[in-house]
């Protein structure tokens, strides 16, 4: 599979240096100890230099047109095209199917009156291209914070994508002029590992157990809506991802939308594995909002989590 292709319908999950396996699950891939994660830092858009080639194309999602950029994994990370290198590059330069499923599910939730972004604080975890967060910007969110493991992904892909969709979309796609002229979201970009990035996110509780007790004003701050697509593939990362979500979600009305494959062959994570972590903890109710079984890859799902 080519990395960072717009047509990802036939994707399988592939690790850099992958060896042939029976393909039946995580026991095929005992996870190796990872290198220390890169430091947490906020990436400031005005400090981003454009020394990597970025090309842009439209992606149509059931009537919603967004712009997606393309950069070369070789140019950014000096890696040949690959999905990810655990602990070094976590796949953010490729557009994964789940993020498209998530945008479509969010749009459908809006149409059904189940969701509004107007005036809300949004956090997109593991954003890569950032299309769900960009969709939230276009739909009236007040604040959208984008997080990725790699600062380079934010610099060379997410920020240009946000600019393309919010600032330049009106020039590129004349029909979207009216929608774009009203976009006023405060966007910020944070790099770091899920185990540490809470230290730099602006609206985060320091007490991961606060959802069980009466929240303080700071804790109420949180994020109204957390979005994430294709972030639950690695079993070892699930606990830190889930802890982070609990620190970030606004209590008592915050919600989380998560898109993922039901199961990731070769690495063992998946939507069901993540939901079992959520259910074991008991702080959220989980409901399935979309299932995509188009025959092109593993079954994919979009879940919604509401604090109890
Ligand atoms: C498979 S990519 C998905 C990218 C994007 N959401 C999409 O669907 O196209 C996984 C994303 O999660 C992020 N990620 C993976 N492991 C992480 C970790 N331990 N800490 C922080 N971010 C991580 C990566 O940087 C990447 O953006």
From TrEMBL:
GO terms for biological process: methylation. GO terms for cellular component: cytoplasm; nucleus. Its EC number is 2.1.1.85. Its main location: cytoplasm. InterPro entries: Methyltransf_16 (IPR019410), SAM-dependent_MTases_sf (IPR029063). Gene3D superfamilies: Vaccinia Virus protein VP39 (3.40.50.150). It comes from the Eukaryota. Keywords: Cytoplasm, Methyltransferase, Nucleus, S-adenosyl-L-methionine, Transferase. It is found in: Cytoplasm; Nucleus. One of its GO terms (molecular function) is protein-L-histidine N-tele-methyltransferase activity. Belongs to the methyltransferase superfamily. METTL18 family. This is protein-histidine N-methyltransferase. It comes from Abeliophyllum distichum.
């Amino acid at each position: 599979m080519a990395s960072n292709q717009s047509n990802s319908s036939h994707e399988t999950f592939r690790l850099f240096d992958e060896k042939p396996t029976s393909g039946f699950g995580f026991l095929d891939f005992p996870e190796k100890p990872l290198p220390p994660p890169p430091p947490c830092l906020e990436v400031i858009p005005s400090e981003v230099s454009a020394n990597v080639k970025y090309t842009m194309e439209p992606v149509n999602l059931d009537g919603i047109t967004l712009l997606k950029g393309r950069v070369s994994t070789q140019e950014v990370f000096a890696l040949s095209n690959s999905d990810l290198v655990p602990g070094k590059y976590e796949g953010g330069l490729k557009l994964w199917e789940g993020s498209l499923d998530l945008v479509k599910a969010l749009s459908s939730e809006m149409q059904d009156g189940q969701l509004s972004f107007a005036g809300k604080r949004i956090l997109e975890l593991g954003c890569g291209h950032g299309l769900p967060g960009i969709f939230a910007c276009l739909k009236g969110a007040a604040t959208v914070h984008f997080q990725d493991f790699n600062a380079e992904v934010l610099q060379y892909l997410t920020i240009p994508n946000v600019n393309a969709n919010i600032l330049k979309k009106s020039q590129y796609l004349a029909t979207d002029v009216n929608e774009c002229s009203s976009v006023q979201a405060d966007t910020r970009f944070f790099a770091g590992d899920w185990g540490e990035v809470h230290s730099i996110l602006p609206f985060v509780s320091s007490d991961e157990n606060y959802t069980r007790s009466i929240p303080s004003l700071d804790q109420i701050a949180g994020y109204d809506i957390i979005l994430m697509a294709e972030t639950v593939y690695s079993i070892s990362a699930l606990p830190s991802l889930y802890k982070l979500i609990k620190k970030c979600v606004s209590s008592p009305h915050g919600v989380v939308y998560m898109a993922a494959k039901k199961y990731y062959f070769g690495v063992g994570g998946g939507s069901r594995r993540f939901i079992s972590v959520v259910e074991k903890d008991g702080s959220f109710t989980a409901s399935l909002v979309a299932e995509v079984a188009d025959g092109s890859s593993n079954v994919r799902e979009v879940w919604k989590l509401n604090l109890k």
